[in-house]
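Methods — Computational structure assignment.
A single polypeptide chain was analysed. Its primary sequence is given first, followed by the predicted tertiary structure written as structure tokens.
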Amino acid sequence: MNNSIRFFIILITSLCFSMNGMATTIRCTNPEYANEQLTFYAFADPISNTDKVAFTLKFNSEGTGEASIQIDKPVFTSSEFGIYRGMLLIEPGKTIDLKLPPLKKKSFADQKNPYFQPISFWFFTNSGTMLNDKISRFEQKLNELTDKDFNALYFQQSEAAFNRLKAGIDEAFPEKGTESFELHKTLRLKLMEADIFRMSPEDYSAIFQSISPEFWGHQSFKTLFDKTFDKQLSFSAKAIGGAKVSAAVAGENINGLLAFISEKYKLSGKMADLVLLKMLHDGFYSKEFPEKAIKNMIASKHFTNNQEIKIREAAKNVATKISFLEKGSEAPAICLSDLDGKKLCTNDSQEKFKYIVFADVETVICQEHLKYLSRLNELFNKNLEIFVVLRNTDRAGIDSFFKENEVPATILIDTENEAISEYKVRSFPQCYLLNEKHQVVFDDAKAPLNGFEQQFGTWLRNELFMRQRNQAR
């Protein structure tokens, strides 16, 4: 290989590397975490509440793990492990040696509690000089100053106390930090100020105008953004003069809604687009506006062809979210092993309707629901196929329950919680009714003991009647 060709290869390689960002290495050694795995996620966007995997830290038998990620700007990530939610803002081109808290896994009660909230904290590193270390120290100082003047701040709403808090922060962090740190500091203080003085969103919303899209995925931005604009479309529609807002939604008048955002919140351009997308997302789930109109606006070229890539990505994620498992949509096939280890799929046959019950056999309420499947099978066996997707628990307990109770269903064990995660199951039991083509029949299928018998029975009679009439034509 001559020198010119070698130079050309090196040049192309270096250009590709620079385009893909700089490699950041995350390392950790902690014997307590031997053979554990921590997956770190980044926000897919600030609205849809979906995440994307940033990197995975896999520990060997000695408790040492290392991962690498290519980034060109600071990226916020977080990982839930045991009872914790650790937050990490990683910088390009750095090597980060993480400190982990003592490993403490969820208790039995924590695992069964659908409202369990992990303990959130910012990671420290061994060097103590990384961006995350500074944020961790900032959060500790903020908590210390808040606790010191808590009554004056939150009960007396003392402006003097809040000024003392800000002065304490400035004293603790006299030198200006990186742009990421300064933004975190600004947004955290604004969040506290808004809480203390019961500020209306329009009193401080202008703070968002100057925030670059590269920071939209940071925790401090998302927290304040959610607080500021949460359910604001519904609130504005019910306020004096709100008929204009409702009419703009019904008429799919994007420009009219943007004008409203500009007037009320003093926002324009990319940020106004992001706020409108947030309002449409929340408005869809409020069930107070025409769903078709909201879907049409989210799918409009204003968002899908937006100049800002993060707006396009957010619109795509929101559109996917609001259409997932809605009535008439095709549900993902669930392919898992049954009690005998045989792999089966919920879409293997197209002969009957499919009733899918996600359950945790260790809870008494799920056990009672599963027992009632015998009654449903007696009533609907000719037209209904029943699947039970079990959260992976003690296998002896699973086998014992189904041996004692002859549940007339195909039992599938979700060993890695893949189907539970894909179907976004938050609590058990959770149920879905699909037709023969694996399409969702109801927006909200009832659980066995909560009225499914009546819900499905009424619907089935009408459905079979309509099918017979259509065949007779």
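Note: The two ends are 77 Å apart (CA to CA).
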